[in-house]
């Protein structure tokens, strides 16, 4: 069995955006199908409210499509990052709006504060994200990078990835395991030294 080399995430992003700019409605559907799962997971993890996460996702897709159609995406190869950033901004605006509408006493402020979102922790999370992105770029096997990014970060479906890469479920699990091990090794070599 010959595995067909799948196009890179950057290439797929660029093609999708170009097709959307050309007015291809099927490209808009493909974009939503491709990134919906990862977007939903990210929003739910941040909002901890399924209904709010779904509302923000809908708002995000409307805004993303509008900005792409208006040619406001500067780097067409970074579509996933563009979508996530818009979603984060939408969630922040919604939370600020809710906060302005609520009147709370000083005692309630202490109860409402989320200790998990301190500026220090937010900065550490940002640095970890940058580190992971950098290390992903250092993976020598392109398939490792694509499978790790698309399965864990984008949220692509295992069945779709198996079909695209020409892998059985068992073979996909082995490839994913080896890719994780290679990434872990890079992590320990680079981050473990700090």
Automatic annotation (TrEMBL):
GO terms for molecular function: sigma factor activity. Transmembrane segments: none annotated. Signal peptide: none annotated. One of its GO terms (biological process) is DNA-templated transcription initiation. The keyword Transcription applies. It holds the Pfam family Sigma70_r2. Residues 31-100 form the RNA polymerase sigma-70 region domain. InterPro entries: RNA_pol_sigma-70-like, RNA_pol_sigma-70_dom, RNA_pol_sigma70_r2, RNA_pol_sigma_r2. Keywords: Sigma factor, Transcription, Transcription regulation. This is RNA polymerase sigma-70 factor (ECF subfamily).
């Amino acid at each position: 069995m010959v595995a067909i080399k799948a196009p890179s995430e950057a290439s797929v992003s660029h093609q999708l955006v170009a097709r959307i700019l050309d007015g291809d409605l099927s490209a808009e559907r493909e974009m939503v199908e491709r990134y919906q799962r990862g977007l939903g997971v990210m929003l739910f993890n941040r909002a901890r409210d399924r209904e709010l996460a779904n509302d923000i996702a809908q708002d995000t897709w409307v805004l993303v499509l509008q900005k792409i159609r208006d040619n406001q995406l500067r780097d067409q190869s970074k579509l996933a990052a563009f979508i996530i950033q818009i979603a984060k901004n939408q969630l922040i605006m919604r939370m600020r709006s809710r906060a302005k509408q609520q009147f709370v006493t000083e005692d309630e402020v202490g109860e409402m504060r989320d200790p998990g979102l301190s500026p220090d922790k937010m900065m550490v999370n940002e640095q970890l994200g940058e580190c992971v992105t950098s290390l992903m770029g250092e993976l020598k096997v392109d398939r490792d990078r694509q499978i790790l990014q698309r399965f864990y970060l984008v949220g692509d479906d295992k069945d779709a990835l198996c079909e695209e890469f020409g892998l059985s479920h068992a073979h996909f699990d082995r490839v994913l395991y080896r890719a994780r091990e290679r990434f872990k090794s890079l992590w320990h070599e680079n981050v473990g030294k700090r």
